[in-house]
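This part of the workshop introduces the protein records we will be handling. Each record describes a single protein and holds just a pair of labelled lines. Instead of coordinates, the fold is spelled out as a row of discrete tokens. To make this concrete, we reproduce a full record directly below:
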Amino acid sequence: MPTLFDPLRLGAITAPNRVLMAPLTRGRASRGHVPQPIMAAYYAQRASAGLIISEATGISQEGLGWPFAPGLWSDEQAEAWVPVVAAVHAAGGRIFAQLWHMGRIVHPDFLGGAKPVSASATTAPGQAHTYAGKQDYVEARPLDIAEIPRLLADYERATRNALAAGFDGVQIHAANGYLIDQFLRDNSNFREDAYGGAPENRIRLLREVTERVAGVAGADRTAVRLSPNGNSQGVKDSAPETVFVPAARALADIGIAFLELREPGPDGTFGRSEQPKVSPAIRSAFAAPLVLNSDYTGATAQAALDSGIADAISFGRPFLANPDLPERLRTGAPLNADVMATWYSQGAEGYTDYAAMEPAAA
């Protein structure tokens, strides 16, 4: 059986280890969603990951509703990503851009007062983070079927911009209650057209987006993230296997580089689910590398590899405070604790000031 520290082929790239950095929103871009120079230092510090998956990055203003999060829809944004990606490569790393449309999670404050779009006219629970502070979510309008070509074009443009910026590939964010997830799951998709109803219709948007992105980047530089079990920002499915196993099969047919699954358990520290994990069933439908995520330690990550269900593990919060996480896991060194108050703040504190181990300790 492979260890966490053995290399793994992920489509067109070879990861030197199986400790991947999961996408982590950090809020260090400009108010206009342009990456800032400090982001180069942050990502370069974490270049020892087998692969870095960037923070979620908006494909359009319509799809981006998080303060100070980066985008990839403009030339200015793409150009500002160039030194970030170059810094990762100079440090010996690999990095995919995660492409993000938040759907109903976007507050009208980001849209000039317009309503956000979703699969159906639904409202997310809780409140949105905006530049004016927390505000209640509003009811989304259903994305018109005539708008889907425009949405696909937005994904294509963001993919082209990511490649122009030097990213090694892209990951489609189809998880965590965002737009594609809102189409996938039956408590947020009440459509009666070709994108709603039966599971094969609800996975249609995911398939079309993936085909469009893979047509630009190449399937071997395209990945997808799903969150098949439990509730994510109010989005849940009553029978996850009936939709996510066919979704995984469709992605396998496209030939994507890898599939990442965020699967919290009943005792998760950042998200919980009483629904069982779907990864065993997905494993039978998806032969390419399968990456699992959520609340893993070094020991449980290795156990997941030993089971044959996972080929790699993506770590999120442990990478916040431990830029040298693979080496810490390899040596059994203690982990730094992260500070939640600085997760989304601006500046270096809680971002680039977490120390790596001293060489002697490593």
